[in-house]
Amino acid sequence: MIVTFDLFSALTDSRTGAPRVLAELATERGWPQSGEELYDRWDGHNKALQRTATAPTTFHDLSREALARAWAELGHDQGYVDADTARLEDSVGEWPLWPDVAAGVAAVARDHRVGLLSNVDDDLARRTRAHALVDPALVMTSQRLGAYKPSREIYARAAAEAAPDRLVHVAASARDVRGAIEAGLPTVRLVRPGHVVDATGPRPPVEVTDAAALAEAVAGV
């Protein structure tokens, strides 16, 4: 069996990592917004763009456009967009993993092959701390698969890449949980702060609140 993990919700505490960088930008420029406010504005546009994105559009393209829209809404200088996008991408290696991740993923890896299933580009995935915990051959990005979450296509292509092995996905965010389940992929929800299940979507069949419980959970799916 192959077990994939969502990169920026299940494994990485992106809501701590990215706002730190954005708070630095705000302080340097005297912007009134907090790092969290800037992140929420950027992340909202990013996710909206991903809902309709198709190849060959890259995650970098989407992130840059999302930042441009966010800065425009807030009245910030558009001349910062390219440099700010690069600064965010360069900082990804500093974004922390959730405290339970290293041991939890290692426990799953004792019995199964482990990988990532993420909307990012290949080079960005390689910069993250989570990349070192998984099989590099199983880092399934939107760039590699040519589709974006929450489209069913990305989950179908990931399952096809895993064949003949069975693929189980560990998700945390509402759209990833719903997307994987509706695509028919066996799914385990790893509960993370700031993420809830989509109220109008299917309920995840298995939920755990700590990555330490994942090895048992995926074995039972």
Automatic annotation (TrEMBL):
One of its GO terms (molecular function) is hydrolase activity. SUPFAM superfamilies: HAD-like. Gene3D superfamilies: 1.10.150.750, HAD superfamily/HAD-like (3.40.50.1000). Pfam families: Hydrolase. Keywords: Hydrolase. NCBIfam families: HAD-SF-IA-v1. This is HAD-IA family hydrolase.
